[in-house]
Amino acid sequence: MRLIRLARLCGMLAAMAALAGCAPLSPSPPLPAMPAMPLLRLAPSSLGREWAVVQQLDVQAGGQKRSFEVALEVDARSVRVACMQWGHTVARLDWDGRQLDQSLAPGWPDAVSAERVLSDLQLVWWPAAAVRAALAPGWLLTESAQTRELSYGGRTVASVRMLAPGHIELRQHAQGYTVQVHTRGDAAPVFSTP
Asked: Which residues constitute the signal peptide according to the record (predicted)?
């Protein structure tokens, strides 16, 4: 008799478990909306040194590829960038820590803003501590010997990888473009060592 009752009880528990499995689950909370990608506006002096370098940038976005030569100069007072294509200066920007001035040649793509160029430069080259200090709550910058990642809510938004000495790749996952940076001459230290 006990065996029959036990079998019935087990049968009822199994039926209840099966019904519970069919019950609709309460909806899981939606993922937090990702705020706009931060635009870094770090002080020129926060690079920690004076620096002048020429870089070749290969930008790939929307199935198209464009190459630029970029002259970058940084001192304690300003960041100066000149973008050249086919021997002609197509864009200049000057950041003094308060104001960003830009000069763009006709035909410069509207989607490429001086603010984004400055922010990408600082994400790649400025010390991680300076970048972290400028990030809003929820944003995280992680760094290793060969990589740097900017994330929000556990999702990687931008990544920087050192592929070889003088060759760095910046991927803006959220913005949908990749930049290959080839540096000639003196490259600033990029990543910390673990």
From this structure: 1-20
